[in-house]
Amino acid sequence: MATTKQLLSDLVSGVSSVPSNYIRPISDRPNIDEVSLGNPIPLIDLQGLDGSNRSDVVKEIGQACQEYGFFQVKNHGIPEEVIDKMLCLSRDFFHLPESERMKNYSDDPMKTTRLSTSFNVKTEKVSNWRDFLRIHCHPLEDYIHEWPTNPPSFREDVAEYSKNARGLALTLLEAISESLGLDRDYINKALGKHGQHMAINYYPPCPQPELTYGLPGHADPNLITILLQDNVPGLQVLKDGKWLAVPPISNTFIVNIGDQMQVISNDRYKSVLHRAIVNSNKERISIPTFYCPSPDAVTLPAPHLINDHHPPLYRNFAYSDYYKKFWNRGLATETCLDMFKITTSNP
Ligand code: OGA
Ligand code: NI
Questions:
Q1: CA 62, 64, 69, 74 torsion: positive or negative?
Q2: Where in the chain are the domains?
Q3: What is the pLDDT of residues 207-229, one digit of tens each?
Q4: Which domain of life is it from (predicted)?
Q5: What is the DSSP letter of 332?
Q6: Mutate to test the pocket of ligand 1, among 202, 227, 254 (most ligand atoms within 8 A of CB)
Q7: How far apart, in whole angstroms, are the C-alpha atoms of residue 215 and residue 235?
Q8: 177-184 LR contacts (CB < 8 Å, sep 24+)
Q9: pLDDT digits (tens, 9 = 90+) for 183-205
Q10: How far apart are the CA of 271 and the centre of ligand 2, in A?
Q11: DSSP H or E stretch at residue 10
């Protein structure tokens, strides 16, 4: 009897070519030869945020948000041990037997804990070379009972990691608020009860990486993303029309602006397209923490940033509406933000 494999890692272990539903049309392939290697995204030392250098670091962050929509951080305060455990555990999770991993499987994007594959198997035409586990992390006590229990230390280690990631997110949100000339707690207060999701992305080795994506170009729908990647390259960021590789640096995080921050900043900061490519010999793990408003929170351009020269560019909306639209339409290069823009034809 033929069995259908739902997860990519089980479907492709040992294959020597990419199955046809993963092959991108010729006009939409990674073109790895054209990737820019110069001028990496800024690496910002957060040590200075606590002392008399605060305003310099805030300025650096603001500049990176404006020019790249992306930056990396070091001296971020998250212990190396917490990071190592998170990466190790993630690898162990995806190496569990298929039957054990499948206990968490779901193709419903609205489920708060689920293991799935590609992006949205219900709506997409071409699949992506990725499996992922997605969980909600805040408030922790509302979700931890849904999390996997295998590997046995999963709940403990992931809780520790996600509390640390939340601390870093809150620190960055204060600095970003200040960089926009807003009160230090403006963004914190604009997020309702706050939300925090996490994905563990697992990209198996791919026999023909030039034909497919781990994740195609997309913008993140949330507020800011704090990405931990292992030591295998794959992340690329769009900068001045070219894809720029972001090589891993151990014990750093990559931070990017998401759509909600673009709205709050009224387009001063941009939610930039990024993608993940795969490679033929190594599995890759990346762990984004998606910091976001709670579903009921209303996102709007900060009134302080609006004046005669800068009219509001977006209408107010509940984050839950935005989030549903994001998952329903699939990853596309035109961002979901266009649906919430104020235009003359769409008042
Ligand atoms: C994402 C993402 C990049 C990566 O999960 O939204 O952009 O390097 N991941 O895996
Ligand atoms: Ni992303």
A1: negative
A2: 31-340
A3: 999 999 999 999 999 999 999 99
A4: Eukaryota
A5: -
A6: 227
A7: 9
A8: 178/58, 179/58, 179/59, 179/61, 179/62, 179/65, 180/62, 180/264, 180/265, 180/268, 180/269, 180/302, 180/305, 181/304, 181/305, 182/302, 182/304, 182/305
A9: 999 999 999 999 999 999 999 99
A10: 10
A11: helix 8-11
pLDDT digits (tens, 9 = 90+) for 136-166: 999 999 999 999 999 999 999 999 999 999 9
Query: Cα of 139 to ligand 2 centre, how many Å?
Result: 22
Distance CA 5, CA 35 (A): 33
Mean pLDDT, all residues of the chain? 94
Which H/E stretch holds residue 318?
strand 317-318
Which position has the token pair 């968490």? 104
pLDDT at site 123 = 83
327 burial level (CB within 10 Å; 0-12, 13-18, 19+): middle
Residue 249 reports pLDDT greater than 50: yes
Name the token pair of 198.
């996490």
Distance CA 150, CA 96 (A): 8
Identify residue 270 by its one-letter amino acid code. Answer: K
Q: How many residues would you count in the chain?
A: 347
Q: Which of 35, 215, 243, 253 to mutate to test the pocket of ligand 1 (most atoms within 8 A of CB)?
A: 215
CB 215 within 8 A of CB 128: yes
What region does 291 belong to: left with phi over 0, alpha with psi -120 to 50, or beta?
beta
Q: Which CATH superfamily is domain 31-340 in?
A: B-lactam Antibiotic, Isopenicillin N Synthase; Chain (2.60.120.330)
Residue-wise pLDDT for 39-80, tens only, equals 789 999 999 999 999 999 999 999 999 999 999 999 999 999
Q: Residues near ligand 1 with C-beta < 6 Å?
A: 199, 201, 215, 220, 229, 234-235, 274, 276, 286, 288
Residue 292 tokens, joined? 């976001």
Amino acid at 36: S
* Token pair 């235009």: residue: 343
